[in-house]
Amino acid sequence: MELFLQTLVNGTLIGGLYAIIGIGMTLIMGVMGIINLAHGQIMMIAMYITWVLWQFLGIDPLLSLFISIPLVYVLGDLMARYLLYPLMEKESILPENQVLMTVGIGMVLVELARTIFTSDYRSVQTSYSDIVWRLGHISLSVPVVIDFFIAIAFTGAMFWFLIKTDIGRSIRATAQDKEAAILMGVSAKKITILTFALGSSLTAAAGTLFLPIYYLYPDVGPIFTLKAFVITILGGLGSTVGAIAGGLVLGIAETFGATYISMGYRDAFGLIIFLLVLIFMPGGLKSLTKV
Amino acid sequence: MKYLKVIIILVLTAAFALSISGCGKKADGPVKVGVLLPLTGSKAKFGEMEKNSFELAKEKINEARTKAGLNKIEFVYEDDTGKPDVGRAAMEKLVNVNKVAMVTGGYSSSVTFAAAAVAQQYRIPFLVNTGSVDKITEPEAFNLTTDDGDKFYIYRLNPPVSEYASGLESLLREVVKPKSVFIIHENTAFGTKGAEAFQKSAEKLGIKVVGDESYSGGTVDFKPMLSNAKKLNPDMTYMISYVMDAAQLMKQARELNWKPKLFVGAGAGYTMPAFKENAGVASRRMVSATLWHQSLPIPGAKEYFDGYIAKFGGDGPDYHGAEAYAAATVVDDVLKRCNGNYDAATIKKALDATDMMTVFAPVKFTSYGKKIHQNKVETYVVQWIDGTLKLIWPKDLANAPFEYPIDWTKIWAK
C-alpha cells in the first residue's frame, strides 16, 4: 500500500511537470500547424538563463522565472517574426519547411550553448533542493512539490487566458479555422507570432522549473522534445486541457510501469499508452471534453 | 580554338597528376592518427576529458619527436556523438577520407564495438582505450577465432568491464562481508555486461543478489526503482551508470532515506569530478571501483594529473583521462617502432610487440580465455571522502583509510 501511494504521488508530481512541458508545444501545434522541433532547445536556453542567474548572481531558480520567461518570450517573438513567419507567407513553401527551420534553429541554439558554456554538466543546489518531507512512509521532495504547484498555476493561468480573454479567443479561433478567423478581423501574423512567443515562454517556464530537479548540458533538449511530442499527441493536437491530461497520464503510466514491472522499460509504458490512445481514440484525450 | 581546348585538357591533366603525386609525398608530413570520441551529446564530458589528455600528450610527444628528427603525430578527432551508427560513419571517414595510419579512442562500449567492426573490415589497427564491453577483444564476435591474431586488428589497453570489480572483490571479502546486494545498471552494453559480471562475482563471494534492475540513461525520476530496492533491504548496492544518472540516483536515494551499508559504483560516472559537483551531499562516502588513481606508484601519473590541472583547470582527470594519455604514448611508441613505414601490417606487428609503461598502467597485449590483444590491468577501489576521491584499496597502496561503517544520517546531514 505504501509503495502504491508513493508511486501514485510520484507519478502525479512528474505528470504535472510533463504537462507544462507539453503545453507550449501543443499551443504552437494548434495555431501554426507545425511541430516545433526546437522545443527542447528552447527549454535548454531557459535552463541556461536560470543557471547563469543562480551561479553568478545567486538568484533563486524560482525567482528567475520572472527573468527567463520574458527573455525567452522576446527570443520566441524574434524567431517567429524573422525566421518562421516569412516561410509561412509564401504559398509555394511547404509547411514542412517550417519544421525543418525549427530543426535548424535547434542546432544553432545547441552549438551556441556549447561554445559559450562547453559540454560541462551543470545543476543548481538551492537551500531547499535537498529537503524531503515525510508523511508517514511517503517521502516528498520539496523542490518537486513546489515545481508541481507552480506548473499547475501556470497551466491554469494559460487555460484561463485562452478561454476568457480576447487574445486567447483569437488564438483559439485561429487554431480552429484560420480563414474564418482572418475574415472576422483577426490578424493572422500577429496571432502566429504571439502564439510562438507565448508557447516558447511556457516552455521556458518548464525549463526553469526542471533545472532544480534535473541537470543541464547543451544536448539536454531532445529528451524533452520527445516527451512534449508524446504528450501533445496523447492530449490531442492543440488542446490545452488535453496536454494537462496527457502529461498526467504519461507521468502516472510511466511511474506505475517502472515500479511494478520494470524500470528498464519506463519509456516503453508511456509509448504503449500512446499507441493505445492513437488506436482507440485517434483525436487524443481532448475528444473526451468539449473544450 | 581547337588547340586551346587541347591545351586546357593537357594543363588540367598535368595539374591533376601533380596533385596526386603531391598526395604521395605525405611521408614528410605528420603521421595522421584517428581519434574516435564523443565530443557532443550526453557523453561529451568524457570525450572532452579524453581529448584534453590526447592534446596534452601530443605536445610532449611532438616536442620529443622534433628533437629526434621524427615526423610529428597529428590526431584527427572524429565525433561519434555517443551513437553507434554515427560511430561507424566516423570510423569510415577516418579510414577513407582522412586516410589515417591507425585509430585510437573509443569511449562507450556499444559505439566502440560498432566502430571496431568497421576497423576490422578495412584492416586498420584500432587501439581501444575506454570502450569496455568484453566482446570488443573477442575475435569470436568478429567471426574469427582466437588463433586468428594476425587477422585481428583490434587492441585494447583498458580492462574489459567483467574485470572492473576484481579489486573490489577482495575489499568485500575481507572488510565489508555483505550478505545481499541489489544491482542497478544502465540498459546499455556496458551496463548489462557489467551487471552480469558482478552477479558472477557475487556468487563467488557468497553474496545473494536480491534484485537486478535496469534503467535508460537520462531518466528524470528513479524513485520507482529505488523504492523497490529499499523495500528489499539489501546490505549493499552496486550501480553501473554514467555520470549524471549516477548523480541523480544518489540524490534520490538520499531523498528516499535508503541506507544500505554501502553504495558501490562500477567506475564510469562515479569517479568523475562532475559526479561530486552535481550529487553534492549525496556523493559523500560513495565507494567505486576504478582503474587508476593519481596517487598510485606509477611513474608519471602524478605529473600527468598536475599537468592536466595546470593546463585545463578543474578537479583533474579520473581514469578516463589517464587511459587517453596512455593511448597517445602507446601510439607514439608503436609508430616509432615502424621505422617510417606506416602501413597497417607494420603497425600491427609493432602493436603486437608492445611492452611498455604508461601513466595508466603497463601495456602489453596478451591472450587469455576468449580474448586476444587484451591488456591486463589491476583494478582498485576509491571512496569520496571530504570532497576528494581517495584510494582506499588495496590497503598497501591506499592513501586514505576506508571509512566504514558509515552513519548515513550524519554523513547526509547538511
- End-to-end Cα distance of chain A, whole Å, is 36 Å
Q: What is the overall silhouette of chain A?
A: globular
Determine and state the CATH class of chain A.
Mainly Alpha
CATH superfamily of the largest domain in chain B: Response regulator
Elements of chain A, N to C (H/E):
HHHHEEHHHHHHH
The low-pLDDT segments of chain B are 20-26
The run of helices and strands of chain B is: HEHEHEHEEHEHEHEHEHEHHHEEEEEH
Describe the strand arrangement of the main beta sheet of chain A, using strand numbers.
Answer: 1-2
* Total beta-strand segments of chain A: 2
Structural class of chain B: alpha/beta
CATH class of the largest domain in chain B: Alpha Beta
User: What percent of residues of chain A are in strands?
Assistant: under 5%
Summary, kept brief:
The complex is a heterodimer of chains A (291) and B (414). With 291 residues, chain A is an all-alpha fold. Chain A has eleven helices and two strands.
Task: Supply the key terms.
heterodimer, A: 291 residues, mainly alpha, ABC transporter involved in vitamin B12 uptake, BtuC, two-stranded antiparallel ribbon, 11 helices, B: 414 residues, alpha/beta, Rossmann fold, 2 domains, seven-stranded mixed beta sheet, five-stranded parallel beta sheet, 13 helices
Descriptive overview:
The complex is a heterodimer of chains A (291) and B (414). By secondary structure, chain A is mainly α. Chain A has one domain (2-288): Orthogonal Bundle (ABC transporter involved in vitamin B12 uptake, BtuC). Chain A contains eleven helices and two strands. In chain A, β1 (132-135) and β2 form a beta hairpin. In chain A, α1 (2-32) runs antiparallel to α8, α3 (65-89) packs antiparallel against α8 (188-210) and α5 crosses α6 (166-176). The radius of gyration of chain A is 19 Å and the shape is globular. By secondary structure, chain B is α/β, with parallel strands linked by helices. In chain B, β3, α4 and β4 (126-128) form a beta-alpha-beta unit. At the A-B interface, α1 and α10 of A face α2, β7, α7, α8 and α9 of B.
